[in-house]
Amino acid sequence: MAEDALNICLLSYRGHPQSGGQGVYLRLLSRELVNMGHRVSVWSGQPYPELFEDVELVKIPGLDLWNEGALLRIPSLEELRDPLNVYEWVRTRLGEFAEPRAFCQRVARSFRQANGSLDFDVVHDNQSLGLGLLELQKRVPVVATIHHPITVDRRVALRAERRPTKLYGLWRWYHFLPMQLKVARQLDRILTISDASTDDIEREFKLDRQRMRNVGNGINLDVFKPLEGYTRNPNRLITTLSHDVPLKGFSFLLDAVAQLRRERPELELLVIGGNVPRERTLAKIEKLGLQKVVRFRGRVPAEQIAREYAEAIVAVVPSVYEGFGFPAGEAMACEVPVVSTTGGALPEVVGTDGKAATLVEPRSPEALAAAIRDLLEATPERRAEMGRAGRDRVLGNFTWRRAAERTVDCYREIIDERRSSQPDAPRRTWVEVGTGAEKGADTTEDGTTGIAARTGNQSLGTC
């Protein structure tokens, strides 16, 4: 009997791994928790996550208004019978990002409709931070991961914009922030992924540091690794752009590439991931004469990203701020030398000793260009040595097992606190730890059976 196995509900208002670091976190943390013997149910809105087969997916469908194929579509009359859909549609048309709040309300409604039959030991939210979590917390301990404070995104975006109408639009978009601050301050625990993120969340969200835990992140070492049979292109730089927003510092990298092209006209930049670049970005590329230099590969599977790393000579992370920095860690795992800014947690990921990466200040095209030039002119032996040092750093510090173990320690901490405050509550143990969504029945100490009707592809909520 596996008394220590936990029944975990992971929440994410959107979960696709190609949507950014939050999706990667959801996919790989859930797999590692299952590998440790726990039962994991992922509840997600669209775009739905790509989970490993041993992880259960419960779909919480929303309006998916930010789907690139049907951006800000008009809902059907049937969809608008649901008050939550009306709320999400109206708020979105007013310029707000209403998706996280609507998602958490849908989850809370599903818990109410279950009428006590859901028997999770803990609910773990992936930076939705909607008001519905406070309702869930009355039933079960709730923790949330904050990858980095979105207040930083807002400040950087406002700083980069000068047009009054756009400034107003940004203020409307970030209307969800007061809600997130309110919810974060009331949850049982807040998990973070770096020391820098912990410091910034404490400052920006005014959180009690005693209620925060840095559990770290991991890199998917099954995919991101050195590959045989590939030759590095001596003129190819590579970067990742999950979202074309000022926080990612892509504009500064374009300036740096334009400078380097005067010396190395063969130089090219491959951009992985993200939506179609913004008009401002495309205009800048044209102004700098980089139309044939910058290639946007779009969203591709992780395996393809690893192959692209295998052919690149230098990876560049120009971000103004990162709560962690998956692209830096993934490049190092593939033994690619890295040029990175010091924005946010990036020094924690790449190290400050210069062995695996060169660090430069954010927002400086000149510093980026100088660091890239130095690596392009270095000997192949030096670049190879940096690559090996980078992979060693990832292996020693950024595995998903390590992150999952720290996360479970936090789960147990708040579960024990809840039990000590409610000593008469029945304690559930597992008869069997399932290897898939179908396996595992659970009973309380008095022999009653909890919910058993879980399938690998459920859909809850009315939409």
Outline of the structure:
The protein is α/β, with parallel strands linked by helices.
List keywords for this structure.
about 475 residues, alpha/beta, about 40% helix, 6-stranded parallel beta sheet, 16 helices
Q: Can you offer a commentary on this structure?
A:
The chain has 16 helices and 16 strands. By secondary structure, the protein is of the alpha/beta class.
Map the helices and strands:
Elements: E1 7-12, H1 21-35, E2 39-44, E3 56-59, H2 83-93, H3 99-114, E4 122-126, H4 132-136, E5 142-145, H5 150-160, H6 164-173, H7 177-184, E6 189-192, H8 195-205, E7 212-214, E8 236-240, H9 250-261, E9 268-272, H10 279-287, E10 294-298, H11 302-311, E11 314-317, H12 326-333, E12 338-341, H13 346-350, E13 357-360, H14 365-376, H15 380-397, H16 400-421, E14 428-430, E15 442-444, E16 457-459
Parallel strand pairs: 1-2, 1-4, 2-3, 3-16, 4-5, 5-6, 6-7, 8-9, 8-11, 9-10, 11-12, 12-13
Antiparallel strand pairs: 14-15
Helix pairs in contact: 1-16, 2-3, 9-14, 12-15
| Shape summary | globular
SS-based class: alpha/beta
> Could you give the distance between the termini?
40 Å
Instruction: Look at the structure and give the mean pLDDT.
Output: 90
Number of DSSP helices?
A: 16
How large, in whole angstroms, is the Cα Rg?
A: 23 Å
The largest β sheet comes out as: 8 strands, parallel
**Strand sequence of the main sheet, in spatial order?**
7-6-5-4-1-2-3-16
As residue ranges, the low-confidence spans are 429-458
